[in-house]
Amino acid sequence: VSEKELALLACGDVEGKFDILFNRVRAIQKKSGNFDLLLCVGNFFGSTPDAEWEEYKTGIKKAPIQTYVLGANNQETVKYFQDADGCELAENITYLGRKGIFTGSSGLQIVYLSGTESLNEPVPGYNFSPKDVSSLRTMLCTTSQFKGVDILLTSPWPKYVGNFGNSSGEVDTKKCGSALVSSLAMGLKPRYHFAALEKTYYERLPYRNHVVLQENAQHATRFIALANVGNPEKKKYLYAFSIVPMKLMDAAELVKQPPDVTENPYRKSGQEASIGKQIPAPAEESACQFFFDLNEKQGRKRSSTGRDSKSPHPKQPRKPPQPPGPCWFCLASPEVEKHLVVNIGTHCYLALAKGGLSDDHVLILPIGHYQSVVELSAEVVEEVEKYKATLRRFFKSRGKRCVVFERNYKSHHLQLQVIPVPVSCCATDDIKDAFITQAQEQQIELLEIPEHSDIKQIAQPGAAYFYVELDTGEKLFHRIKKNFPLQFGREVLASEAILNIPGKSDWRQCQISKEDEETLARRFRKDFEPYDFTLDD
């Protein structure tokens, strides 16, 4: 098995039969070795009583594999999916969200769309609308480099999927399924597309995504519909497959056509007009959740106009996500205390911390509205890393090492706290020990993350956490389950073991006048200027 290859499982409607599913997964893993992920489409919850789910929710039982699920398809199950942007439902079981893109740390790209089709706005929590589908297409398909995605997860089948294909049994694909899903599959060109809801198993022959002799060869798509868990007819509900993420594959290997490939079912069949009609023009929408691999240094730097060197037409840069209400940290927001801003990049900015632990305690903040590091898009991550590296160099020249921490709990906009600690104060190991000791005293489980690993491999989308990074690259991580002391990071650094300013652990005790803040900001800007990479372009 190549080290880039992932072993995945996909599953149809679970309908609350969690024990049957997870026992089956355990048996498969015992026989064939461990799988990386389980992806569930269709109805994850059933109309049965919740006793079985309670055991997973409370941790009495645990899923044997990282499991990702789609949201509600009906009114009765909406109650299980409180957060539209996805969240952890139980240990190892994560709800992906209403719609979006999930990028694993391996680079695997999974696009998901929860619910069933509705053409009427506003749509209830268990439906998706033409607008949802067009915003997903816009988010992905508008870049010239877009080739397709690895996996598409939807609950309904795509309408017309049986065209030019093998028989879909009792399901009439001209009547059944969603034309919006067909349009999405046509645009996104997934290598695998999974769906459920029809209580049957159908593996369609692979179909091509290009017009023969008119377009360059592209990869084929495999559509697989799965039956419901534990069905009496023993129809297949669990599908095992291995996949190398598209971005790690050799182009020639990727576009190899399987011998039984067919024409694209959504094209040239007279139906395309009807598929296209239901898709309105892409509406400008705030981007939904994105999760990217933090180690990734992706993409050419575009000039500030958003012009791509090859394309004659200027591309509109994608608007950064907007906050749902007033936000103290979105740079475009009137609430921002602009006098504290000391440097502005393309995707991030630096500001002095209000009531900082020291005169040069700064924050790295995304310009757009992102809640945590886990949600940042690739280009924002790249600039965050650049700011961290530059600040380390800057503080090192001043005889200081910096500690970076993030608390994704009771906060709405990502704030990466960067606190310089004079080298003369203590060694990095002392800082690490202080965090671990104080965490133990407060019954906080602070785990060391292996170096070069990525917080997104550990933190689930939507999950609360606290995370600290030392100047050596060592990282400590705590998954917040219930409560967490809001000032924990400050308390540790202000303690006698480190900065020895215990009275300053609460920022409200450290506030100074606006005039003094302006003086500190001016001084920081001047000192930082020789290191300012935003002037390089």
Brief summary of the model shown:
One of its GO terms (biological process) is mRNA splicing, via spliceosome. The protein is α/β, with parallel strands linked by helices and 537 residues long.
Structure notes:
The chain has 537 residues and is α/β, with parallel strands linked by helices. It has 2 domains: 6-255, Purple Acid Phosphatase, chain A, domain 2 (4-Layer Sandwich), CATH 3.60.21; 338-531, HIT-like (HIT family, subunit A, 2-Layer Sandwich), CATH 3.30.428.10. It has 11 helices and 24 strands. The strands form 4 sheets. Strands 6, 7, 10, 11, 12, 13, 14 and 16 form an 8-stranded mixed sheet that branches. Helix 2 links the parallel strand 2 and strand 3. Helix 3 packs parallel to helix 4. The longest helix has 19 residues, at 378-396. It is elongated and about 75 Å long. Mean pLDDT is 85; it is low at 269-316.
Key descriptive features of the protein:
alpha/beta, HIT family, subunit A, 2 domains, 8-stranded antiparallel sheet, 11 helices, elongated, CWF19-like protein 1, Cwf19-like_C_dom-2, Cwf19-like, RNA lariat debranching enzyme activator activity, HIT-like_sf
